[in-house]
Amino acid sequence: MFNTIGNLLTQDDQVHCFENAARHLSEDGVFVLECRVPTAPGRAGHQFVDVEDLELDRVGLGVCRYDPVSQLLDVNHVHLGADGLRFNPIRLRLAYPPEFDLMARLAGLRLRDRWGGWNGEPYTAASWRHISVYQPADT
Fold it and tell me: Which residues make beta-bridge pairs with 59?
C-alpha cells in the first residue's frame, strides 16, 4: 500500500478516495495511508537523478522531474546492465501529511495516529515516511 494514494493524480481524486473510505468505514474502522515524505519539492531545478542500485555489473537510476504546480512527480526507474536497458516509468501526485489531514477533515475523518514506521516509531522531522491512521470524526 506504500504511496498508493499518489497514483491518484489530482487533489480532487485523492479527496474522493478519502470520501469513499469514510463511506465504507464502520464506527470503529480506520483508513490507513503509508507514504514517503516528499523530498522532490526541495530539489534544485525540479529535475534530478538518484542512484538506486549500484553493482559492478549493473546500475539502477531514478530519473525524475517534479512539477510544483500540479505536484506531479515523474520517475523513470532506469536499469542498465549486461542484459540491456530497461525503463519503468511511474507518475505520482505528492502531498505532505497536513494536506492529507485536510482531505480527511473534508471527508468527515480525523487523524487518530501518525507514526514514522510500522513498529510505532515516532513521526518526526527526520522521518522519511509516515503511516497515518484516520477514523470517523464523530468517534
Answer: 54, 80
User: What is the rounded CA–CA span in Å between residue 78 and residue 92?
Assistant: 17
* Other beta carbons within 10 Å of 33: 25
Which domains, from first to last, does the chain contain?
Answer: 1-37+95-139 (3.40.50.150), 39-93 (2.20.25.570)
Q: What is the DSSP string of 9-21?
A: -SHHHHHHHHHHH
Q: What share of the chain is helix, strand, coil (3-state, %, to 5)?
A: 25, 45, 30
Q: What is the dihedral of CA 108, 111, 117, 121, to 10 degrees?
A: -170
**97 vs 86: CA distance, rounded Å:** 33
Q: What is the pLDDT along the chain (139 residues), one digit of tens a residue?
A: 799 999 999 999 999 999 999 999 998 999 999 999 999 999 989 999 999 999 999 999 999 999 999 999 999 999 999 999 999 999 999 999 999 999 999 999 999 999 999 999 999 999 999 999 999 998 7
